Each structure stands twice: as C-alpha cells, then as structure tokens.
UniProtKB/TrEMBL annotation:
Organism of derivation: Niastella vici
Cofactor binding notes: Binds 1 potassium ion per subunit.
Molecular-function annotations in GO: ADP-dependent NAD(P)H-hydrate dehydratase activity; ATP binding; metal ion binding; NAD(P)HX epimerase activity
Gene Ontology BP annotations: metabolite repair; nicotinamide nucleotide metabolic process
Stretches assigned to the YjeF C-terminal domain: 225-494
The protein's name in its UniProt record: Bifunctional NAD(P)H-hydrate repair enzyme
Length: 495
C-alpha cells in the first residue's frame, strides 16, 4: 500500500471526481457517510454529539456527519469556527442542508463564544484537515485547547486538527483524539511516534477512490503489508535439500548475555535456514547446545572469527558486549566477509564509538538500530520526520539498509525508497525481541532473499508473530521467545 503526501491525496480525490465521475460534494457525502457508519458500528449509536467544524472541506465532512446523525435522532450541536470567509463550496452546500435538520448550529467568532462542552457529548473534530498550511493559532488554538481540556472523548475526522499530513507539528497545538477516522490510505503523520498522543487509534475507511490512480504514482513511502510479503516469500520445491536454504553464522553472546545469542539462533533456525553455526564464547557452549540443538557451535578466543567465507551470510551483535577486543572482532568480520550481512545491538554500539567502521560494512548489509542506537550512530534529529530523512540519506551514503525499529519500523533503502512496517504491537516492547528480528533477517538472507526482501519480509513476519502471540495470550505477557514459537503460524498466515 502506498503512503501519500498531501498533494497526492488531493490529486487522488480529483482523479476520482474526474474519472468515476462523481461530484465533489457527493464524494464528501461518501466520506462522511463512512464516518457516520463507523460511529454507529462502534457503540456511538444513541450518544449526543458536539461537532466542531472549520470552513474547509474537513468542516464540510463534519457538517454531513452532523446531518446524518441528526436525521437519525441523535442530539447534535454544531460549532462553526469563523475563519473570516464563507467557506468552500461543498461546505456551504452542506451548511444549507444542515439547516433543514434539528441540529443546533452555533458560530464561534471570539473567545467569549467558547462555552463548556456537555460532559456526556462525544466530540467530533472537523476543524482542520489536510488543507492545514500553518500552525493553529489565535482562536483556533484556543478552541483546540478547550476541546483537549474538556476531557470529552474526541474523534478526529481525517487527521487531528493542527497536525500536518507529511511534516512535523512538534510543539504545535494539536487535537488529542481517541480515534482518528481517515480515508483510504495511511498518512505519514499516523506512523510517527511523536504524534502518538494526538492520533489515538487510526481507522482507515474505504471511500472508493479509484485504484487506477495508483498505477501512475510513485509514492514517497510504502506500507509493508501482507500482500507485499506474500509476494516475496517463495514456496519450497519438493526436491530441495538443506544446501538450498543456505548456511548462516551468528556471532553473538557474552557472559551473562547468552540469552540474546540463543534467541537470535533459534529465530534464525525457525526462519527456515538450511544450516546455522553459532560463533559464541566458550562459557556459552553448553547453553547454546542445549537451547538450540539444531545449531552447530564454534567457540574460541574472541568468538573465533575464522573461516567466515564459507557462510552465505552472518548476523553479528546480539549480546556481544562492547569490550575493546570486539573492535578487532568486527574488523576481522568485515575483512573476511564482503557479502551483505546483518549488524545489530552491541555491534552497532561499537560502530557508534568508532565511526570509521561504518565505511567497512559490506555493501548491501542490513543494520537494525532502535532509535537510541540510531542516534549513537548518526546523531540527534529535531523530530521523527527528520530522522527518517537522515536514515534515507545514511542508507544511500553507506550503501546499506537501515531498519529503524519502532511501532512502525522504518526500512530505509539505499536507492532512496522508504517503507513502514504495518504489523506488530506494543506487547513487543520487551527485551530480546530485537535479537529475534536479527535471527529472522539473517536466516532470510542466507536463503538468498535480496537484502531488501529479507529486511521487508523479516520485519513483517516478526511483527505478525507478535500479533499472533498477543492474540493467543496478551500483550503484557508477551516475551521474545513467543515470537519464535509463533513464526510458523506467521508464515502460514501469509498464504
Ligand atoms: N479523499 C479524501 O481524503 C477526502 C477528503 N475530504 C476532506 O477534505 C479535507 C481537506 O479539505 P480542504 O478544504 O482542502 O482543507 P481543510 O478543511 O483542512 O482546511 C481548509 C482551510 O483552512 C485554512 N487553514 C489552513 N491552516 C489553518 C490554520 N492553521 N488555522 C486556520 N485556518 C487554516 C486554509 O485556508 P486559508 O485560505 O486560510 O489559507 C485551508 O484551505 C480533508 O482533510 C477531508 O476531511 C473530502 O470530504 C473528500 C474526500
Ligand atoms: K480534523
């Protein structure tokens, strides 16, 4: 699924209006009807509503929702924020239609006109949508603060008022919604951690925008979804043998952190790799042999980084520790292996301390930092949008794939393309889930998936395992081992 910027969303509306064809006011009716139906299907039937509208088409959506609610015997009060102009054509048509109903209509043109919101009312926020072009200030800002301070449940239409679709509104005054009802496709704003407080739960409603538009568009970002990953994962051939699925190595673990190495190894095995050898410290030998009997082990000084050429790929980092000898270890790995590999955790922290190592990473490799590790490698950014741009820039500079872990993990490709993963849940915010991800991606690389495909399929399967595990038990109880147990079902769910 494509993730569009503001101009493309507008162009998609216009394309649909021209080619369906459908009048703009009827498209608004369709969008608002989808919101109205969502409300009825989600326990809002019979409630009373305070609906706040601007004078653009976002406000127009609010007026249609108000009419549909009033016509179905809901108590509706509509507050229209005076912007000093008449409003868009579709706004005006729908204001006239609203006058035919029992809804109360009040205009807010000064602070004195802002009154307490009845505590039982559901608030609908239709003040500003994708047409926002400056921070909310003056009366608009006052009204947003008033709504936020009311404690009422807020449902935002299209996007919480005050947020921009595709750049940061950090520090600005923005509606805090419990739910956001948006249309057709994800907006970049919904995928940024800095907006979590504003957007609440996002629900995408189908308003029948024509798919023909998608063929003409290069979107700035793509959503990694089931359709994309199902097309990546290849079925197995009946005559295949283990040699066909590659030999991976994992270089991981240290005293007190063998768990990370075990999780990584077991995830790698479950990803479908043909053979796995673990390069681990001597004191971890028994732990690994008992925990992952399918894996071979190499022990010796400094993880015994020898004869690495024989592996199809290598995953390095989980539980490695950051002692100084590990700089030699990394140097040795990068010298012997020039094929794409996976670099995570302490290996990234070492590179963060010795930035010259960045240039030695084999081309096409995948690094998997969480935001703190990313910051140690590439520095701080002012906001989440800038961090994504920095990831794209660094991916190109070092010819690597950057998997920036988070609720919607971002994958920066060196060719400038960016992807947001759609699977996963907050239950996965627990120790060891990153080690599992490294194991899965290493296993996919060994199976000769391209770096891009290994990264995309790896993050999606990892998140899907988390979703299945959380559905089976719960989010709070989820532990990293559960992801490995559910990886089989995650594969199964693709078909
Ligand atoms: N497929 C769809 O997505 C559909 C979406 N629809 C809805 O349409 C809106 C977008 O409507 P638009 O009229 O383009 O924009 P807004 O309603 O968001 O804004 C209207 C005007 O408000 C002014 N503005 C901008 N920023 C501010 C601000 N900070 N404070 C006050 N006013 C502001 C600006 O006008 P100016 O002349 O003052 O610059 C905007 O033009 C979309 O979000 C959906 O809700 C349709 O229903 C169809 C389907
Ligand atoms: K809104």
């Amino acid at each position: 699924m494509q993730i569009f910027a503001t101009e493309q969303i507008r162009a998609w509306d216009e394309y649909t209006i021209r080619h369906e064809p459908i009048a703009s006011v009827d498209l608004m009716e369709r969008a608002a009807t989808a919101c109205y139906e969502w409300l009825l299907q989600h326990h809002y039937k019979g409630r009373s509503f305070s609906i706040f509208c601007g004078k653009g088409n976002n406000g127009g959506d609010g007026l249609v929702i108000a009419r549909l609610l009033a016509q179905s015997n809901h108590s509706v009060t509509v507050y229209i924020l005076e912007f000093g102009h008449k409003g868009t054509e579709d706004f005006q048509i729908n204001l006239a239609r609203l006058h035919e109903t029992a809804a109360s209509i009040l205009f807010i043109s000064s602070n004195e006109a802002i009154h307490p919101i009845p505590s039982q009312d559901v608030v609908i926020d239709a003040l500003l949508g994708s047409g926002i072009n400056r921070p909310a200030d003056g009366l608009t800002a006052e009204l947003i603060q008033h709504i936020n301070n009311s404690g009422n449940e807020v449902i935002a239409i299209d996007i919480p008022s005050g947020l921009y679709v595709d750049h940061s509104a950090k520090g600005n005054i923005v509606i805090k919604a419990r739910h956001t009802l948006s249309f057709q496709c994800f907006k970049p704003a919904f995928l940024m951690p800095e907006n979590a407080e504003s957007i609440g739960d996002v629900h995408l409603l189908d308003i029948g925008l024509l798919p023909g538009f998608l063929e003409q568009q290069a979107a700035p970002f793509q959503l990694v979804d089931q359709a994309m990953v199902s097309a990546i994962i290849r079925p197995r051939n009946p005559f295949d043998h283990k040699g066909d699925y590659g030999h991976a190595a994992i270089i991981a673990g240290s005293y007190g952190m063998m768990g990370a190495a075990v999780l990584c190894a077991r995830a790698c095995l479950r990803s479908g790799v043909g053979k796995l050898t673990c390069h681990i410290p001597t004191q971890g030998y028994t732990i690994m042999q008992v925990s992952a009997p399918e894996a071979m082990c190499r022990t010796g000084e400094n993880h015994s980084p020898h004869e690495l050429e024989k592996y199809d790929t290598i995953g390095v980092g989980p539980g490695l520790g950051t002692h100084v000898e590990n700089f030699d270890l990394l140097n040795s790995v990068f010298e012997q292996n020039r094929r794409p590999m996976v670099i995570d955790a302490d290996a990234l922290n070492l590179i963060g301390q010795e930035k010259a190592l960045l240039k030695q990473i084999p081309p096409g490799s995948i690094i998997t930092p969480h935001p703190k590790e990313f910051e140690r490698l590439f520095g701080k950014t002012a906001n989440d949008y800038d961090r994504i741009q920095l990831a794209l820039q660094k991916a190109a500079e070092y010819n690597i794939y950057i998997v920036l872990k988070g609720r919607y993990t971002f994958i920066a490709s060196p060719d400038g393309r960016g992807y947001f993963n759609s699977s996963g849940n907050p239950g996965m915010a627990t120790g060891g889930t990153g080690d599992v991800l490294t194991g899965i991606i290493t296993g996919l690389l060994a199976q000769k998936y391209s770096s891009l495909h290994a990264a995309l399929a790896g993050v999606f399967l990892h998140g899907r395992s988390g979703d299945l595990a959380a559905a089976y038990s719960s989010q709070p109880s989820l532990i990293a081992s559960d992801l490995i147990e559910f990886l089989g079902q995650a594969y199964q769910s693709l078909t």
